[in-house]
UniProtKB/TrEMBL annotation, chains A, B, C, D, E, F, G, H, I, J:
Principal location listed in the UniProt entry: cytoplasm
Protein's name according to its UniProt entry: NADPH-dependent 7-cyano-7-deazaguanine reductase
UniProt organism field: Rhizomicrobium palustre
Taxonomic lineage of the native organism: Bacteria, Pseudomonadati, Pseudomonadota, Alphaproteobacteria, Micropepsales
Active-site residues (renumbered): 56 (thioimide intermediate), 63 (proton donor)
EC primary class: oxidoreductase
InterPro entries: GTP-CH-I_C/QueF, NADPH_dep_7-cyano-7-deazaG_red, QueF, QueF_type1
């Protein structure tokens, strides 16, 4: 990393390298950023987070989802551990599929101010019908390389 | 969900949380909507419904299909349980492949008035030849994220 | 077919080549047999029936399943069209997963008196948990060739 | 089907519901059309026909192919049974890969006058080298939903 | 279901058809049984439960697993909803991978007294290394049909 | 090939290297053998024949199948070209699925007198239900290496 | 083939239907063309050639490749057998990966003068790193149907 | 974990929860054990370790491998973090494929004294030919559930 | 290779055909170029490098990645062996995922001055969340053939 | 490798680390062995060799095959480079599928005197029908771990 010192980077973080409990709500979670080592370059970072769970606001039963997030960083990258903790903060909170997917994306946008961000939320089936939610901010910066997701579609049995 | 209260939402629904019999015909089914929690955001909701059956209008024998529906909500989201009941209302009704696929899409459009909707109907083979039906309303809103379907194509044997 | 004449075979059947309505219940269905053209040979016939539906006895909602049936015929083969009609006779009848799978198998045994039969029922998920039911009659006749099913297991999302 | 009566539809057909022998040549086959139930809507119908065979004009040996055909219907849909019979009419006729693929497409165009049609012919390997043939008529009507084929490519062994 | 009446069956259950909160601990959960409709027949019931989560006893962070359970019922079948609630009772409890997998299996054995039971627990990777845990009770009853799991193995990237 | 001269081998064959028309019936076909170059060794030869077609004895319509044949040669190997011609001889002949699969196997046994032979016939679906037929002669010679078929099972749509 | 007679076509060819030895070098090979039966139609022909080998110019060791070639024919189609012989002419000749892939494409262009041609060369790994080479001539004719290749990417182990 | 206290367990470990450098050689690594919470039960624990690298003893160049290890614990389970460190200790050490695979297995046996252990080492190709190494200790304890590995085999290209 | 002599080519290289130790750091590595045999042709060369490892700058533990690099050569091609050595030079050096991916790409650009280059880095999961990094230089030269990557996405378990 | 010194090992080899031309015939090739570092342990070594080619003895045209070889070493392991050279020695020699597969296996047995060896030869299709050849020596030593091959079966098109 040409311009960022490791020590400097870690000093500004509050959770990395410490034992941190699961935040009780998304509001309690602290999503943190680190400096983008290549701020003048439009590249894509993709996170795949197959471990997500929250509660159904109607029935109180657990819901599960698999997320894929692509973003073009501006000045900041998301700090991985704080992102993991943010996701886990939904664990015991009620959250609708469509809403939660967008809320996660918008939180990342608020913290990172990326040049572009998109999210794909693949939710486990309820009533035999799975729901996917897809959103992106405006336009991908020109000439940015963003491959297709290629996530396997849901199928029934057999 | 920032602006919608859970209690309000559920009061307007007539089927959620109740035992509801399969509607006898699509006309008897009540497809219901709930408010879109992010009405100012162009995002996609995808339903995958691998459990669909109706009757062949020519032979009276059962037909089966796997549907994938993508839409960009306007003011409303489809209420999942009512959608499931709507699909099951075709169960004992005659319905041609091409027609049924479009009828389902147009019904959703009538109820949801989405900014965009597309449907893919993958019908089980008859006479060794499966039929797929694909339709979308006009144009996808600019800069909307809509991944490819990636549904496995039909193959014969071996 | 060395020993069986086509005309004789068809005369004994009551449904082949005729328009036959879906039987209202499994009891109304007529599962028919045709002579085994190689009665002295222990071979396996496998049916794959991905188009099955019945009703949930608790909720009245539709259930779906994908069946694979392997049998070693004795004197009789199942007549395909009558088998298809038999499966469709469950369409508007309540039926538990475990029970239905075994009932179908036992009906085939009653009609065909096969040397061996096994059934695999892959049911679509309810409450996020799909159920499979597997059963076979006693022992496969010695030296019979019966390949593994290789049916794709259920997975969640992502 | 809003505007078309089932009885009317069937009266105009000459082969549906009757035992029809395989036509001896493609010229003898009668490819038939039925009215498009949604003539004002630009949608796609996809046929997958993995059961095709003809003879090699050079060696007289059998050739096999797997076809996928997508079309945007104008006033007419192809009648499925007559299409199946048309395909089977090539059975004992000599036909080059490239030529046959285009001839089938052009015949459908002649009978259906679709707004758009494309064909993909996947031929089984000869001399270790399989040939695929792809063709489409002019331009897909604007804003029509036509998913990628996703047919598995040929591979050798291992 | 030959010998069991639907009403009788449901009367003995305490959770089916009611809104039941997630039990706070596995001890609080009530795993319930229903009569086996075919008690004289050795068949297999397979549950696939891709939605499981608990907490890591060392770090307090969430863990996830995908379970496949096969059993040969004796007098009882597990009641699906109570099983789902039992699994969700681990949600906020510390649990080691190996231990939890066996504890779930042994609980099912205690309640169902099956003729045979096996469990496969596929845990999500920690430190880049996923752990699977496999266990079965003694011997599968002779001549029972139990297909291979065919669950996709873990792989890294690329 | 240690013990067999190429010239000798080809002299005894009547079809290799010549243009041979498709035999009109299986009886007209001449299935030929060549000497086994390793007669003292129990090994397996597997043929995969995805190009097979015959006619349905009931409807006269074309049927298609994909065959996999494994055998342990005794004194003879099947000559590939004559085998291909034999398969093509069914082209315009009526043939039931179960019967045809066994007839092909028994013809090979008659000509080759192998130490072991098994056949798997994967037939294309009719009425939505594909049929597979599996047969083997007695026992595989001890310590013979015969891998599983791993042929993909039939699935519906989606 | 509407306008081309089979006899005329074969007279102009020098290798079809004859035993032809592997040409010693690509220069010795005779790549031949046959008339395009649909010269007024812009369609694509795809060859998949998984059987290619040459020698490494640096080490003299064998190299292997899998080629996929798509072209839009002008007045000519490539004659399959001569193409196969052309590919086999590289067998004992030194050839770099990038160079060979382009040389094959340019030779086809010279002989066929196609409206468009593209080649994909998938080379087997050396030093653990496989190389793919992709090239196309200028622009695909407008409105030509050319599906994606969908060839599986290389992966390591596991 | 019925009989083992978390605090006791962690006290005996020297590396868990601490920053530990990669051991310089396998001899420097400390592979640690924790008590088996179900010592009276014969179950299988599977580790999948796709992140392994060492050096080729002949060329000094890096080698890579993907390991799958199954064992039936006796009194001890391997402690995951120490196992990860043990694997990373090979990083800058020369090691032959066959030897290394067995050395890892034998080290685990020495430390864990398992009732059974097997290892599968899938090494990345060298010279175009990948090597797999498979070994197990004596016999699997009777009635132990050990699924097949189902790891994808190596293939070339295309 | 029309214009480049093999001897000339090898003389300018310093590492090919010699035993070269792993460079201690990326700075010590010598990435070398060879002349592009088709400098007037815009084609793509794809490297797939599934064998990459470096150290985590925060924990010192090993990280692993799978890279796919596509470039359109200008006057130079990368010399394969020097590229392999360059990749291995990261082995014992600390490197962040995002940074390393871009550093490799920028080094290739510096040495090769390609008309276009893109890189996809698929990193193994940390904390259950894998990261992919994608970057390309400006615009792909017009009419260049560059297929999609089709790399399998990460998934959890099951 | 506990008991074998690297220097000793390499001294006895005649081809490793030298430029060696492709042997002109299998008789000219020198298949070499190295000491088994674990001679008292019954383990399996699997080679996958997807790069094999020879000539068809009847037509002189190239044939291709993908081999998988498993063996339990006695005192010796095969030396990889000499094995690669041995395989390449078939390049310009006529060889029948069945014969070649066994000849390779028997040569390895002669040189290595393994406790067990098996070979699977997957040959590319000729006349649309691929041939696989499978052979093993006597019995696998008791309690040896030998996973299934899991090689994808041949399929036609579509
Ligand atoms: Ca469900
Ligand atoms: Ca895809
Ligand atoms: Ca794709
Ligand atoms: Ca796609
Ligand atoms: Ca399998
Ligand atoms: Ca299997
Ligand atoms: Ca695809
Ligand atoms: Ca059918
Ligand atoms: Ca298998
Ligand atoms: Ca694709
Ligand atoms: Ca290699
Ligand atoms: Ca398997
Ligand atoms: Ca991890
Ligand atoms: Ca793909
Ligand atoms: Ca062929
Ligand atoms: Ca398998």
């Amino acid at each position: 990393m040409a311009a960022t010192k490791k020590t400097t980077l870690r000093k500004s973080l509050t959770q990395l390298g410490k034992a941190v409990a699961i935040p009780e709500t998304p509001d309690d979670a602290k999503l943190e950023a680190v400096p983008n080592p290549h701020p003048g370059t439009d590249y894509v970072v993709r996170f795949t987070a197959p471990e997500f769970t929250c509660l159904c606001p109607v029935t109180g039963q657990p819901d599960f989802a698999h997320f894929v997030i692509d973003y073009v960083p501006g000045k900041a990258l998301v700090e991985s551990k704080s992102f993991k903790l943010y996701l886990s903060s939904f664990r015991n909170n009620p959250a609708f599929h469509e809403d939660t997917t967008l809320v996660i994306a918008k939180k990342l946008i608020e913290v990172l101010k990326p040049k572009y961000l998109r999210i794909a939320g693949y939710w486990y089936p309820r009533g035999g019908i799975p729901i996917d939610v897809f959103w992106q901010t405006g336009t991908l910066p020109k000439n940015t390389f963003l491959p297709a997701l290629e996530v396997a579609p849901y199928r029934g049995r057999g």
